[in-house]
Amino acid sequence: MCQHHRTPHRCYGHANDVSESLDPSPILGHTNDVSASLDPSPVLGHANDASGSPDPSPVLGHANDVSVSPDHSPILGHTNDVSASLDPSPVLGHPNDASGSPDPSPVLGHANDVSASPDPSPILGHNNDVPASLDPSPVLGPANDVSASLDPSPVLGPATDVSASTDPSPVLGPANDMSASEDPSPILGPLNDVSASPDPSLILGPANDVSASRTPHRS
């Protein structure tokens, strides 16, 4: 509820809960609620809907809420497991292909395929496969498993738990709060704001734009 930040300060609220924040989220918009935002979200667009469709969001599902959907997650597939999905992912496409582009994705690597790429993904590591990687993932850490990692996750911090970390998260900053960090986020840049950063994002590149990266992944 931002009890410690009464000033006009973007934060995610108590216990890193986006729904409790009294101030707008720099990513999710007003009241930090994807479906409740009155203004366009700088990430999801108008009405916080990835496609602007009046129907369920192709990313977040019915009511734009991944957790309340009675069906499988539209992002992770059956049992919320990327590798267990029998059907194409509505996000990554067939087979788990972000856009079907014949060119490499600067995020997912060759063929934009999380699991099938013969080259390492700059995000997911060797074989672009979160559970199957032989080497540690630069994002998820040893075994590429957020919950199984014996060492701290380079993204989520100690115990790979965003809310439980006693030390600052290298991504979310002190208290694991994207907006509360006093220093720039190593991912989102100054002010931890994808759209407001005057410098290139370490992940997204110049103007924080995946497609504009000056260092595209080489296949």
Structure description:
Residues 1-219 are annotated as: Disordered. Residues 210-219 have a biased composition (Polar residues). Residues 1-12 have a biased composition (Basic residues). By secondary structure, this protein is mostly loops. The protein has a domain at 1-71. Helix content is 0%, strand content 0%. The protein has no helix or strand.
The largest sheet is: none
Tell me the Rg in angstroms: 17 Å
Shape: globular
E-strand count: 0
End-to-end separation in angstroms reads: 45 Å
Region (Disordered): 1-219
Biased composition (Polar residues): 210-219
Biased composition (Basic residues): 1-12
Features:
0% helix
Short description:
Helices cover 0% and strands 0% of the residues. By secondary structure, the chain is mostly loops.
List the helices and strands and how they pair.
Elements: no helix or strand
